[in-house]
Amino acid sequence: MAVTAQEAEKLFEQAVAQSGTAEIALYDRLIALIDDTASPELQALGAKARLNKGVSLAQQGKLHESILVFEELRSACAACAHPAVQSLAAAGMVNRAFVLGLQQNILQALAAYDEVVERFGNAAEIELQEQVAKALVNKACTLARANRATEEYAVFTEIMRRFAKAADSRLLVLVAKARHNRALALDKMGGTAEADALLEAVAEDFWQAEHSGLKEQAIHALAQRAAMHARRGNRNESNDIYDRILNRYGNDPDPKLREHLDRVRFNRGFSYHF
Length: 274
Prior knowledge:
Layout lengths: L4 H13 L2 H14 L6 H20 L3 H14 L6 H20 L3 H15 L5 H20 L3 H14 L6 H20 L3 H14 L6 H20 L3 H15 L8 H13 L4
Helix pairs in contact: 1-2, 1-3, 2-3, 3-4, 3-5, 4-5, 5-6, 5-7, 6-7, 7-8, 7-9, 8-9, 9-10, 9-11, 10-11, 11-12, 12-13
């Protein structure tokens, strides 16, 4: 039975409002109503239902089932060239790799991230570039957890090279995260001075940014600098950096910054006890 776009949207909204088995059942019902002869818009909604289903299963701890759903999503989207469908397929592939990492299948997870880059690395669409950047960031973080700092550093360097001319805020946030984590990798490898300089560069680049995500990256970079100085016993320098954050962002009305600033205030006050 054919389903209209309005009916499909309503069913999707009902699924999103549910949780657990009820949510999964509604996603399954929607997926069953949409096949590869449907319009690109309906196929995109079906892909979104599969993506949400996979994420929900992972959140419920059903990791193997989650992986199977993400694999189904990749197969279902293979014949559709519509950008929205392809970006959802890419997101499913990134999530599949992440869940493999949760299962401690490190080699499989790394290979899965590489698959995203190989398949979509030359795509022009921002949505697909974003998934490639996420795959690379997650790959580097997976290497970090495996204590493979040299390889981690190389991947973060690749992100910075690949997206050096990025202008979209979504990509800029991911590149900033890569630069931040590249600095942490440098610090682990003994390049503390270079790491400090890189974190300062991140903060300077986004000091005047209005986008929440970019302001967060500036705060993170400076907070990491402060922590590095405190760890080396440079308490005054550390406090000066915390003050710099608070002077710039302390009265910022952006609610997304509140938790980060509370942490800065705590660390700033806590440093007096050393």
